[in-house]
Amino acid sequence: MASTETITFESHPGWTLQARFFRDVTNAEEVGNLIVAGKLPVKTSVINAKLVPDVLPLYAAGDKTLRAHKSQKGLTTRTLGSELVFNLSGSKHIREALTKFGVKSKDCTSVILAWFEKEGEMEEEGGDVSGLVKGSAGAMADLASAADIAEVRSHYNITDEELSTSSLTDCVVFRIGAKDFLDKKSGK
Amino acid sequence: MTEEEQVVGLVPKCKLVCQGAEGRVFETRYFKRRAILKQRFDKMYRHPILNKKLTRQRLGMEVKGMMKARKLGIRTPTVLLVDTETNSIIMDRVEGITVKDWLRKGKYTEEELGRVLSAIGTQVAAMHDGSLVHGDLTTSNIIVREPSLELTFIDFGLSFNTVAQNGPEDKGVDLYVMERAFLNAHADKPGLFDKALEAYSQKTNQWKSTFNRYSEVRMRGRKRSMVG
């Protein structure tokens, strides 16, 4: 049985994000297709673990997602699940974010399965779809070893200078937390 | 009310650390880390629409300034979250003390003092060469970590990206603000700023134009004369 990490949010009492990590996944593309077809629960995300070096980015993106969920403006994407993936990317391009951080590609072999849960809310559908993922379960602590550092750096545009003063995780979290202001296309 | 814990920008357990003219700074926790929450508050005397625009703009200035500084190899706090709904920035808490306190405590050797001052000069020069102007270079806005003496620059709320034609003026003013800050906060220790400026001059590649303008700014003060 895979070990599930429960992330609780100080700012959103009652909400948790459950996360599981799988490596050597053989059917990522299939699961990705299910997501795209809208066949998976709306609170569930399937994330390409290659671009996530730590749990903290998940936490920051999750916090952002829940804040958007509670705000008047609402979510940018359609579901909580996709919003989490979108927020992880640190960019404003929804499609680009979903293709990059989603799993709908042949060469995606490590996957994070994450789903939001709200205390006291009976779910008509459980967010946990671990049964669908064909791979071996790992611990969330293994994220760092599964991440492709070169790709993380090129996606988030992290320079040597910045990395000399700060950890990779911090560089990534900075971009997730501040994404509303960093993307040049954002305008006013 | 200083010791009271309150909920700020959805984050519980915030302890007020200090209050400025534009915002309040709280200490809190964010996902297993010690964090600082900086919230800008509404100015009641401003028109609500203008207020919203200005607040958002300044939030952006701060975050963008930090990002730019990081890309130039300067340590800044890591931003963990920016919330435009509550106008707050959550960033990790930097360990260490302000250069101001460090200088006042006076527990350093001559060699350490020299290292810190020249590091200040070098890093400000790196910022300026990357056309980033900090806008509020005081000794309380630089944190020094012991024993490594690494510097972290904080409070980019007034920072901006200068364009080529205003470069010397903006940088000159930035240096002048720094000189005044050194003079006012550390009047008992003269010559500190000169050491930092010397390191600056060695690092920067725009020394001539910046220095000329800086001398001009010194003569007239920070504000440009509007006469004529």
Automatic annotation (TrEMBL), chain A:
It comes from the Eukaryota. GO terms for cellular component: cytosol; EKC/KEOPS complex; nucleus. GO terms for biological process: tRNA threonylcarbamoyladenosine modification. Keywords: Kinase, Nucleus, Transferase, tRNA processing. InterPro entries: CGI121/TPRKB (IPR013926), CGI121/TPRKB_sf (IPR036504). One of its GO terms (molecular function) is kinase activity. It is found in: Nucleus. Belongs to the CGI121/TPRKB family. This is Kinase binding protein CGI-121. It comes from Chloropicon roscoffensis. The lineage of its organism: Eukaryota, Viridiplantae, Chlorophyta, Chloropicophyceae, Chloropicales.
From TrEMBL, chain B:
It holds the Pfam family Kdo. It catalyses: L-threonyl-[protein] + ATP = O-phospho-L-threonyl-[protein] + ADP + H(+); L-seryl-[protein] + ATP = O-phospho-L-seryl-[protein] + ADP + H(+). Keywords: ATP-binding, Kinase, Nucleotide-binding, Serine/threonine-protein kinase, Transferase, tRNA processing. Its EC number is 2.7.11.1. Residues 11-228 form the Protein kinase domain. GO terms for molecular function: ATP binding; protein serine/threonine kinase activity. It is an enzyme of class 2 (transferase). PROSITE patterns: PROTEIN_KINASE_DOM, PROTEIN_KINASE_TYR. The keyword ATP-binding applies. InterPro entries: Bud32, Kinase-like_dom_sf, Prot_kinase_dom, Tyr_kinase_AS. It comes from the Eukaryota. GO terms for biological process: tRNA processing; tRNA threonylcarbamoyladenosine metabolic process. GO terms for cellular component: cytosol; EKC/KEOPS complex; nucleus. Gene3D superfamilies: Phosphorylase Kinase, domain 1 (3.30.200.20), Transferase(Phosphotransferase) domain 1 (1.10.510.10). NCBIfam families: arch_bud32 (TIGR03724). Belongs to the protein kinase superfamily. BUD32 family. This is non-specific serine/threonine protein kinase.
